Amino acid sequence: MSYHITEACNGCGACLRLCPVGAITGEKKARHVIDSRRCIECGACGRICTAEAVCDAFGIVCERRRRSAWEKPRFENRSCMSCGICIDACPARCLSWSAPVMKKEPHAYPVLQEEKRCLGCGFCAGECPVGAVVMTTPAATVEGGMDDK
To answer: Which of 26, 60, 65, 109 is the most exposed place for a label (fewest CB within 10 A)?
Structure first.
C-alpha cells in the first residue's frame, strides 16, 4: 500500500516537484495521483502538501510541516562503521562522505551534504545496521552538533 492523494488536492504541484522518484502525476489545479508501484513511502508529499490532501499507507491524513521543521539525520561517528548503507538508502541523494582528516581520523564518515534536498524520510536511519544515524529536529541538530570523534 502506498500514500494516496484525496479530493482535497488543489493541484498546486508541490508534491509532484518534490517526489524523489517521480511517482506523482497531475495537471496544475487538478487532483494529483500517486503511482503505488513507484511510491517509496518517504512521506515528503504529505509533509509538503498545503491542503493536507495526502494520506499515508494506513489512510491517516499527513500533517503539513514547514520544511525548516523536517527532521534531519545526525551521524554518531563513534558508532559508525563507514559502511555507506545510509548514503545508498537516501532517495534524495543528499548524503555523501566527509573528507578524512588523516592525522586525526583516517576514516570518512557520512555527512548531510545538501541539507535543502533532505526529505526527512529517515531511510538513512532505518537502514543503519548499528544505529549511528539519528533523526532529529533542526533545533536539536544545531544544539547537539555533529560528532567529531
So the answer is: 60
Q: What grid cell was written down for 43?
A: 512521506
Helix (H) or strand (E) holding 75: strand 72-75
> Cα-Cα-Cα-Cα dihedral of 119, 121, 126, 130, to 10°?
30
Give all domains of the chain, ordered by start, each with its CATH number. Answer: 1-65 (3.30.70.20), 67-144 (3.30.70.20)
What CA–CA distances, in Å, run from 66 to 10, 18, 77, 128, 143? Answer: 18, 14, 29, 26, 19
Q: Cell match 487532483: residue?
A: 31
- Give the helix ranges, DSSP H, for 28-73: 44-48
From first to last of the 149 residues of the chain, give the pLDDT tens digit.
Answer: 789 999 999 999 999 999 999 999 999 999 999 999 999 999 999 999 999 999 999 999 999 999 999 999 999 999 999 999 999 999 999 999 998 766 676 789 999 999 999 999 999 999 999 999 999 998 754 444 444 33
What is the number of other CB atoms lying within 10 angstroms of the CB of residue 86?
21
